[in-house]
């Protein structure tokens, strides 16, 4: 009887060991990478990291400034020579193909507004792409500058409408007063636009020159440096004197970037896993 119990115990142990071996075999077959080499961190990070992409809007802003200066110079010259001086009225009429000088200036200003509108669309598109690549701080710093040129020219157009609508009344009181006011408006508009575009160009050129990493990587480096030097400095969270809307916006931008980064990381991880499985 004891011998029978011993034999039954040995059979039970053998069955358990066989089941374990079968489970291990099935687990190995289900996951062919269990005995394979692990995916190296360098291979994964090198596939995720992208080369820094410079913003091409700096030269666009410079070109817009040149066009703006040329158009304003031509408009002021036409207004002075053809209207204010009045000695070359016939020549101006022939040169403009019978078009009124003030109308020509207004058409030029309208064309300039269209150019500024296209520039604003281009800048917004490029900065949105930079935002998706993780440059959230640069996007927030230049967010107001993106729209300022269009706002300046739109305000200038509104001022021109206010001046030109009662031009007949103004010219009765002071000869060519509407033309003088028109020149003042386009000159002030030029000055404000040049200042804004110059400031924007400096920001973009500095950004392209520094070629920084995404904000998340920069924060990781700064935290590592702070930990090594025993300096605790962080900008995360809400504190007195800070704007709650700004904190929420920063968190939303960071979450959106991390979601895109994790998606790319998962896709690359699956690609590398399939490559090792086939190997």
UniProtKB/TrEMBL annotation:
According to the record, the segments passing through the membrane are 58-86, 101-123, 144-165, 177-197
Give the subcellular location. Answer: Membrane
Q: Which residue intervals make up region (Disordered)?
A: 212-242
Q: Which UniProt keywords apply?
A: Membrane, Transmembrane, Transmembrane helix
The secretion signal range is none
Q: Primary place of residence?
A: membrane
A cellular-component GO term for this protein? lysosomal membrane
* InterPro entries membership: TMEM192
Q: How does it sit in the membrane?
A: Multi-pass membrane protein
The biased composition feature labelled Polar residues covers: 224-235
Q: Which family does it belong to?
A: Belongs to the TMEM192 family.
What protein am I looking at? Answer: Transmembrane protein 192
- According to its UniProt entry, this protein's organism is Electrophorus electricus
């Amino acid at each position: 009887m004891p011998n029978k119990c011993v034999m039954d115990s040995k059979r039970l142990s053998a069955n358990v060991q066989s089941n374990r071996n079968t489970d291990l075999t099935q687990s190995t077959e289900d996951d062919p990478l269990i005995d394979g080499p692990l995916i190296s961190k360098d291979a994964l990070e090198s596939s995720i990291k992208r080369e820094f992409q410079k913003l091409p809007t700096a030269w666009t802003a410079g070109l817009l400034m040149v066009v703006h200066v040329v158009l304003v110079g031509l408009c002021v010259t036409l207004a002075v020579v053809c209207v204010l001086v009045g000695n070359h009225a016939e020549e101006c009429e022939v040169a403009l193909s019978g078009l009124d000088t003030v109308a020509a200036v207004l058409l030029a200003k309208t064309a300039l507004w269209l150019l500024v509108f296209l520039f604003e669309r281009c800048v917004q598109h490029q900065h949105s792409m930079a935002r998706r690549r993780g440059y959230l701080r640069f996007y927030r710093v230049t967010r107001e500058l993106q729209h300022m040129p269009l706002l300046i020219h739109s305000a200038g157009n509104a001022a021109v409408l206010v001046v030109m609508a009662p031009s007949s009344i103004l010219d009765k009181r002071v000869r060519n007063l509407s033309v003088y006011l028109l020149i003042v408006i386009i000159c002030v508009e030029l000055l404000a636009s040049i200042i804004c575009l110059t400031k924007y160009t400096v920001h973009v050129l500095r950004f392209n020159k520094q070629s920084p990493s995404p904000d998340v990587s920069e924060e990781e480096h700064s935290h590592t440096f702070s930990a090594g030097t025993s300096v605790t400095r962080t900008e995360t969270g809400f504190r007195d004197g800070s704007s709650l809307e700004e904190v929420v916006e920063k968190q939303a931008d960071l979450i959106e970037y991390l979601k895109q980064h994790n998606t790319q990381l998962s896709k690359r991880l699956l690609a590398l896993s399939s490559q090792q499985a086939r190997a």
